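Example record

One chain of 267 residues, shown exactly as stored in the release files.
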Amino acid sequence: MPLREVLARAGAAAERFGRDLQGIVARERYLQTIRPWMGSAPERVAEVPAMTSRRLVASLLLVHDPQTPWQLHRDVVSVDDEPVEGRDARLAALFADPSLEARERLRRITEDSARHNLGHVRRTINVPTFPLLLVHPAYADRFRASDRGTLHEDAATLRLVALRERGRPRVIRGDRLRDVELRALLAIDEATGEIVRAVLTPRGGDLRAHLEVTFARVAGMPVRVPVRLWEWYWVHDVPERDRYVEGEATYDDFRRYTTDASAPQVK
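Predicted structure tokens for this chain:
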């Protein structure tokens, strides 16, 4: 199958993801760790002792937006097994205020939840659906694609596609508005266009980062959904350059989101 057709199917699958999973909520179990930087990029979850760690449990909500169908909103439920204080009251207030548009409500929830992130690196791409951006029709032209062959896995033919961002402005902007070039290697199901695995390697200035996401079929879901994320970030030009931030998350309990007149519920 020509690479162009594979990418066209991947773009259609990204659009389908946002449409078919509208209003889906998932549980995220997210372990964030700070580890000493040993001078080279880790290739897997590190075995060196952690300097500190934090366990987050959150609800992730997908709200359909034709321009950003990969965007998830994270609402942290507990930190190190302790419930987030005032969460229910905060949600009730946000959803009861008629002056707040739905998008603004969700932005505030997400921003408030970001304060629980561990470490010195501010990050906004640590959502498991972010790889869909690379193939979505709204962004696909920003990337140069090259064929890396095929492999067969679970009765599916996967096309390996390397992507490299071209042109400016970049999709990701770092601290002090530095451009961050985005590169990736995707494993795409040729039949469905769905991403099965994605490895993203943003690079810019003194930043080094790595993001891996695995998508799989889950009972009750119409398309493959993210089931695991692994990430790390290291910055050279900061006092904390002797350490890096690592995160590993898993996703389950996918369900439909509903609301009543006062507060959000899930079922």
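Notes: Residues 3-266 form one domain.
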